[in-house]
Each structure stands twice: as C-alpha cells, then as structure tokens.
Write a structure and sequence with these properties.
Number of strands: 17
Oligomer: single chain
Structural class: alpha/beta
Number of domains: 2
CATH topology of the largest domain: Rossmann fold
Number of helices: 15
Strand content: 5-15%
CATH superfamily of the largest domain: SGNH hydrolase
Radius of gyration: 25 Å
Helix content: 25-40%
CATH class of the largest domain: Alpha Beta
Shape: elongated
Distance between the termini: 40 Å
Length: 510
Amino acid sequence: MKNILKYSFAFLVVGLIGCEPEFENPVTDDGFYNSGTADLSKFVAVGNSLTAGYSSGALYISGQKNSYPNIMAEQFEFAGGGEFTQPLMNDNLGGLLLNGMQIAENRFVLSVDANGNPGPVRLEGTPTTDITNKLSGPFNNMGVPGAKSFHLVAPGYGNVAGVPMGAANPYFVRFASSENATVIEDAVSQNPTFFSLWIGNNDILSYATSGGAGVDQTGNFDPRSYGSNDITDPNVFASVYSQQVDALSAGGAKGVLVNIPEITSIPYFTTVPTKVIPLDAATADQLNAQFAAYNNQILPGLVGASVITAQEAALRKIVFSAGQNYPIMTDDDLTDLTQILQGPPFNLPAQTAGLLGQLRQVNANDLIVLTASSIIGTTPDPNNPQGIMGVTIPLSDQFVLAASEQARITTATNAYNTTIKALADAKGLAFVDSKMALSQLANGGIPYDGGMLTSQFVTGGAFSLDGVHPTARGYAYISNLMIHAINSTYEATIPTVHIGNYPTITLWNN
C-alpha cells in the first residue's frame, strides 16, 4: 500500500516576552484601590489542578507561582489582602515520588527532535518532591490536582496509605493537616474572609480525556462506587457543592464561584482534525475494495436480520476517497457483532470478526483527542507495513470522543453550571462564567495589548502543552476575570494585570 499517511504534527514556537508582570491598571496614589464590601485579609482558594497552577502535564514551582490564586493574591495586597501561601513543589521538574519511587510524570517542554521537528516531550530528570515529606500548613492555596467535587469532602483523601490503591490524592497527602482531614475542613479551619471555589471540571474531564471509557453515573448517588473516569451524578455534585459553599461562607466570608467550561473549548479536543488521513485515488480504491463485502453484503444482512438498524448500518459503513479522510475506529457504544459475524450466515474468521465487531469511521461530529496525533499513521508492527493506525488498524475508543459521549458530558456540565449559578445568586457571591470566556478564546480569541490570546495549541498563548491546563498567561487571564467579577459584585477597585507580560510556551533549551 503506497502513499499512506505520513502524519506529522507541526508546532510553532512562540517567543517569551522577557519582562516582569505589570498592572493593567497602573497604580497612582496610595489608597487608590479598595476591597469594597469584601474583606480580602484572609483569602483561601479551593479547587483542583486549575487552582493549584498545574500546567504542561505537571505541578511545579514556577507554575504554582503563576497560579491564578497567587496572581489574585498579589493584586489583593493593594486592597487590604494578606499573606498567601502555597504548598510549593521542591523543583521545576514536576514529578512526584512515593518513598523514592516516581509515581507522577515530569512536565512537558517544547523541544526539537533529531529531524528538526518541534514538539512536546517530558522533561528528563529525577524529581525531588516525595509525598511522604509532609509540609507544615495551613496553606491558602487549597487546589488539589485530580480532585473531583466529592473528593473535597472525603475523609482520608490525604492519607498516604491510600495512594497506591487510588483511594487518596498524592498532592493532598503533602499538605493535609491529618490523615482523615478533608480539603474543605482544612480550608475552613483557616477562617477565610474571602474564598474562591472552582471545582467540577474533573467530574466530566476524566471521562472526556479517556474517550468516554468511563460510565455516566447519572442516577447513582453513591460516589464511592464510581470509577476514576466516570461522570458524576448532577445530584451528587449539587449536594457536595452546596456543602462546600455553605462551609466556606458560614463565617460571613464573601467569595467568587466559577462554572465549568465546555470541553470543546480546550485544544486537547480540537487540535487534531477529524479528516486526518490523506489518500491518493489508487489507495482509496484499494481500501474500498477491501471493505466492499462488509458494506454491501454484511451490513445489509445484519439489518435484514434485525440485528442492527439501518441507521447503525449507515454509521458503520467504511468509505474512503482521494484527499483527506476520516480514520477508522472501534466504538464501544456500538453493538459488539463479533460473535454474530463468526456464525452463520457470515462465518467470518475470528480475527476478521473481531476487527469488524464494533468498527466504524470517525465522522464530523466526533472529536479526536490530542494524544492520537502521536499514533495516527504509524505502523505499530514493523513486520506488517500494511497495518497502519487509523487506516487498516482502527483507533481505539480512547482516542475518539464520540458525539453520543459529548452529549452526556454537555448534559452533566449544564446541570453543574445551573447549581453553581443558583448558589452564587442565592448567596450574593461573585460569579465567573468560564464557559463563556473559554468559548471566546476558542472562537476568535481575546485581544490584549500586544496580541491576541486564543485556544490554538502551542501558538495561541492560553493553553499549555498538555492541551488542557492554561499557561501562566492563561492563568493571568483567568485572574483578571475573577478580579473583574469581584470588583463588580463587591464595589471593589482591585487592579488587574497585563496578561501579555506573563510567560507562555517557549522552546526548551537544555
């Protein structure tokens, strides 16, 4: 088979502006800024990796120092804000150790390979952050990477004994006040006068990034039974989120709540085009000949036997043409026809039946995830040059987020956001619509002095090399959104920052 896909993902390098952050609103006279009706003297930020400052696939010192809560706290100082502490990592590698064994990978950097192609690679080196070395808190930044909504109220989430089984969080282990403490308890024990809460992203994100490998747990009210990639039931989210807001505001503290963006706003799901397979006419004809019996005999036979519907048969049809094509994939949502195809009247060999059992072609409504860029078009078996990923070997479901899976995510996201907005309104709290803000980044971008911030992978400036978490510049943008909401709600005049003076992705120099 000739001229089959040579797929390469080209990354453009963006230069780092080498200057210190400065105010978007310049400071003029002492006392010009004030906190309005809010008290910023004790600010506690609660959330997940986004709150912690996670970026490019890891948590590391420089990322933490550019976390949006830390940027906000620096601005709060001009309006009565107090000290803001964070559970800093030991280095800028970003990996984690458990008793000397590495359990979390180092961060991504943008590097150039031997052929001169730039792309993200994991930074080499042995990390020095061992989670058994407990930190002395408390800490104002209570962002815990990987945390879902219900994890914030789960006793033992910081117990190191639970880490190997996935029952505890290694990041929270480092700074939990005790083995049975909850994140919310440790946050509330600091008696915050002001708080931020951004949680719920991971309640749908792990399902999305796994290509829908988890289960939509809507209707299951027991999160203890959930898998790591499952969608959290909206009622569970509403219950635990209400508990968290009540606890944080119980002492009269004011705060800001942030809703959940659509996954289609982040480059992890939008960078790889669905029509990613280039074929010439001869190769397309050859492939179509291989699938002719499947398309014209097997699928109609299955419809005639009422095994599948005509609609499902149309979805399963495999057609290639000259030009750009959709790859083939395995769809776990489809009926598994493997056993049926091995029996009469088809009597297909087991290997062929297994290939066709849940086979279909990606379509325009699907999303191919960022990690698929490293495998599409490759020949995983050097002894079989005809075995090409996405062409003759289907992509596994983990690399494609189907339209049906996206619909489940959207339904849950909308339900979570309804809860968040209702609580913000009921309690008079500031509210940030990150769903709308990230949608603007993905659809045209956000202008700032010196450029345009977009969600374009690598070159857009907003998102880091993991395609999910912001760069320092992206976090600066988020901090400004927070400050604008706080100023509007509490009649404050807290200064924002110039986002263009915060770093974005640059080429790594060893």
